Amino acid sequence: MEKIAVISDIHGNIPALESVLVDIDSRNIKRIICLGDLVGKGPQSSMAIEMIQKHCESVIRGNWDDFFPKPQESHTIKWHQNQLTKNQMNYLKELPFSVEFMMSGKLVRMFHASPRSVYERIQPWDSLDRRLRMFENTESTENIAGKREPDVVCYGDVHNAFHQNIKGKTLCNVGSVGNPLDITQASYAILEGEYNQLEKGVFSIQLVRVPYNIELSIQLAREAKMPELEEYIQELTTAKYRGLKK
């Protein structure tokens, strides 16, 4: 059987990404898929893109990757934009919406946020109907099996790792590498099964948490004089989203 590592939401946090890649390598996993949001929040978006390009077989577009190359009014976003080259901006523009494949007889689909948009946010506590809609085919998804809907959906976006079985289907959020908002450890998922096999076989999903040097991530942001530093520190050290009301 083959193992596939699925990472997401790097957000320019290189110490977290390096720790996750070391863990993936220690498991001898060769195939890595990234579910987007390479940039922003952390200070090293440019290096994050370089490392993802080097290590990942497939990379799809997140909401930050989508709006990042477009003109922005926010001083903070402009600061992050200025860290990228023109070629890196073009790379973000060209990222695909989703990726699909068969594994142990299951149709697996991966996107950043939902099958409809990189901006539609679905949480594990949302209604059953909203979560079931994560398995819909849309004009944006690849639909490699025609009208057949996926058996397994993996996504990122909410920075909140979970795994649910819903009416015979599997919904998995792989969490965030660089900006986790559930516990203060980097998160990713491992899928194990027979890649590209149409017949039913053994299949599993494992959620992995990886400690990393949070103080180094904060030091790098401070040395770069990154805007919204205190908000960033809060998220890394408490796993609490800066937008939550006290």
Please give the number of β-strands: 10
Q: What is the third-level CATH name, the topology? A: Purple Acid Phosphatase, chain A, domain 2
Low-confidence parts: none
Strand adjacency order, main sheet: 3-2-1-9-10
CATH uppermost class = Alpha Beta
CATH superfamily: Metallo-dependent phosphatases
Question: How many separate domains make up the residues?
Answer: 1
Largest sheet: 5 strands, mixed
Strand residues, percent: 15-25%
CATH architecture: 4-Layer Sandwich
Listing every helix as H and every strand as E from the N terminus to the C terminus, the arrangement reads EHEHEHHHEEHEEEEEHH
Cα-to-Cα separation, first versus last residue: 47 Å
Helix content: 25-40%
**Structural class per helix/strand content?**
alpha/beta
Overall mean pLDDT: 96
So how many helices? 8
Radius of gyration over C-alpha positions, nearest whole angstrom: 17 Å
Instruction: Based on Cα principal axes, name the global outline.
Output: globular
